[in-house]
Amino acid sequence: MNTLLFLGDSITDCGRSSEGGLGHGYVGMLSQSFPKDYLFINRGLDGLTSSGILRQWRHYLKTGDTPAVVSILVGINDVGMVMNTGFSEEQALKYYRHDLETIVAEAINKGSRVILTEPFIFPRPSEYIHWEPCVMHFCAQVRDIAVKNGACLISPKEHFGIAASRSHLGWGQVTTDGIHLTDEGHRILAALWRDTFFAKMN
Predict the structure, then answer these.
(1) Cis preceding linkage at 125, omega within 30
(2) Would you say residue 108 has pLDDT above 70?
(3) Strands 69-73, 2-8: parallel, antiparallel or unpaired by DSSP?
(4) Partners of residue 8 on adjacent β-strands
(5) Which of 46, 110, 146, 155 lies most in the core, judged by the most C-beta atoms within 10 Å?
(6) Using an 8 Å Cβ cutoff, are 142 and 76 in contact?
(7) What is the pLDDT of residues 72-84, one digit of tens each?
(8) DSSP code of residue 3
(9) CB half-sphere exposure, 173, CA atoms < 13 A
(10) Domain spans of the chain?
């Protein structure tokens, strides 16, 4: 059995922690399009920062399982901590990088492959425009970690933008509130993840 482990915040959780199953977001969508010999495990949890993801990873390690792939999408709550609480961006980036590098190194050491997805924000409502520079700094960390560790990288923001530009709904095509995704947004993310996996890992 090929185990695919997903770690993340509310975007990955998407109802799984409250409703059970894999949630109704991109993880659940992916599970419906993969062969039956793949086991999907969703450990996404609403509100997590990178430190919470590290705790989820360490908790998972206690099962003794070695996943074929560890997928990580986290960062927007770390950005929110900077933007809403006055926590310094420098410190937040330092902790963020440490947490992600720790998970990636431990996963690779166990023989797992890693997929990292850049965090994202949308200019709807307009206040999130001010978050964009900080988000880009976190994305830069993700890209650097992926390159240095041979992890696969997913950069979804451009694809969301294309979908928004082609719809009369604009950004409403892909986001419900500037952070979370619509069903279409989750379908886009699922397609990117699936394409990355089959192109580079299968």
Answers:
(1) yes
(2) yes
(3) parallel
(4) 73
(5) 146
(6) no
(7) 999 999 999 999 9
(8) E
(9) 15
(10) 2-200
CATH topology of domain 2-200: Rossmann fold (3.40.50)
Tell me the CB-side half-sphere exposure of residue 166, using CA atoms within 13 A.
8
What is the end-to-end Cα distance of the chain in Å, rounded?
Answer: 14
- Fill in the DSSP letter of residue 164: H
- The count of other CB atoms within 10 Å of the CB of residue 191 is 16
* pLDDT value, residue 20: 85
Question: Where does residue 94 fall: left (phi above 0), alpha (psi -120 to 50 degrees), or beta otherwise?
Answer: alpha
Residue 63's SS3 state is coil
> What average pLDDT does range 149-161 have in this prediction?
97
Q: Identify the DSSP state of 180.
A: S
Chain length of the chain: 202
Distances in Å between the Cα of 149 and the Cα atoms of 10, 57, 82, 185, 187 are: 26, 18, 27, 28, 28
Locate 90 and state its tokens. Answer: 């420098």
Cα–Cα distance, 78 to 47 (Å, whole number): 9
Answer whether 45's CB lies under 8 Å from 13's CB. yes
